[in-house]
Design brief:
The protein is mostly beta strands. It is built from one helix and 25 strands. InterPro entries: ConA-like_dom_sf.
Length: about 350
């Protein structure tokens, strides 16, 4: 929840009230998006045929069949043609999840067209051979409507059995819209979780895979060697060797979004006599992100016998919006100079 507090407008009970400006922000659980990062392909190079691994493990990917550099959700990205373009990253065990270990896969994708004759693989390190397993994130048809417009996170363990794969689906993926996918893989509980667009958007948690999520396959992004390619833009692909927390997932999602923020200002210093009232206009101005309703919940610092009301009690600053703060003083309210603090809270965030 975005919460801003501003000290504003001098309010006089016989004397001028001096007022400055300050902000209180709520404490938040600290996020960590670096610990356990074993693979990170930003796709920010903008040119060349190498997708560098920024995790420090130097497991760079080779651009195969001409994926093109483009603007992404977090700086640069790669665009894949759905025919044969892909990034091929050498097989390494740090990109897999042995029995007793857990991990997380994260990436942004924007689908440009729906696959027709075969599924489109976004991220693929899966082998269906006996004794193999791995993970596969693809665009397919999971709801039986005849259109490959659904996202499936598929995790399979090395203990092969019929139906022993963990499937979590997000149906009806829109074209030309960015999605942030986070897949949590837990071999310790033979389960997986899928989040689409933030920690508050858990699609499903399911079990049913057994053994390690490992394979000797190349890690492929945008397609695979069997030509299950996808026409999409992919950005900021990451592999962690731990389960990300809700704060971590939110932090990753916020890398690609501008969070809502606002500022508060007021109409200046005011004075009021005992037994009367005074108005002051408080204005909320959009600083960043998509506008949300701002509620004006408190005016603190009032002297004994004084009361505050807001009209309206909330507004939405598409650019800017205002409320009128009315301070009413009783005949017994002590004279003096008082600093009044107004708190505005973003109700949607």
């Amino acid at each position: 929840m975005s919460k801003h507090t501003r000290t504003f407008g001098c309010l006089y009970l016989f004397f001028v009230i001096s007022i400055g400006f300050f902000i209180f922000l709520p404490l938040a659980v600290s996020a960590d998006i670096t610990t356990g990062l074993v693979g990170h392909w930003k796709f920010d190079e903008g040119s060349g045929t190498v997708a560098s691994d920024s995790s420090g493990n130097v497991n760079n990917g080779a651009l195969t069949s001409g994926p093109t550099w483009t603007t992404g959700k977090v700086s640069g990205a790669l665009s894949f043609d759905g025919v044969d373009a892909r990034v091929s990253i050498p097989d390494r065990n740090i990109h897999e999840f042995n029995e007793g270990t857990n991990g997380t896969i994260s990436f942004w994708f924007k689908l440009l067209s729906y696959p027709s004759s075969v599924d489109g693989h976004l991220v693929d390190k899966y082998d269906s051979s006996v004794g193999q397993g791995g993970y596969l994130y693809r665009i397919t048809d999971t709801d039986g409507d005849g259109v490959r417009d659904d996202f499936r996170a598929f995790i399979h363990g090395t203990t092969n059995c019929n139906g022993c794969g963990s499937n979590v689906n997000k149906t009806n993926i829109s074209l030309n819209q960015w999605y942030h996918a986070v897949s949590v893989i837990k071999t310790t509980s033979n389960s997986s979780e899928l989040y689409i667009d933030g920690a508050g958007a858990l699609i499903s948690s399911t079990g049913n895979f057994f053994g390690a999520a490992t394979s000797t396959q190349t890690l492929s992004i945008g397609g695979n060697e069997a030509a299950s390619n996808v026409n999409a833009v992919i950005d900021d692909a990451r592999i962690y060797n731990r389960v990300l927390t809700a704060a971590d997932i939110t932090e990753l999602y916020n890398l690609g979004s501008t969070a809502f923020d606002f500022s508060l200002t007021n109409g200046g210093n005011k004075s009021v006599t005992q037994g009367s009232s005074v108005n002051n206009t408080v204005t909320a101005t959009l600083v960043s992100g998509t506008a949300q309703a701002v509620s004006f919940i408190t005016a603190s610092g009032l002297p004994t016998g004084a009361a505050a009301t807001f009209s309206p009690i909330s507004c939405t600053p598409s650019t800017a919006c205002s409320t009128v703060l009315t301070i009413s003083a009783l005949s017994t309210t002590p004279a003096g100079t008082y600093t009044i603090t107004v708190t505005g809270t973003a109700t949607g965030g």
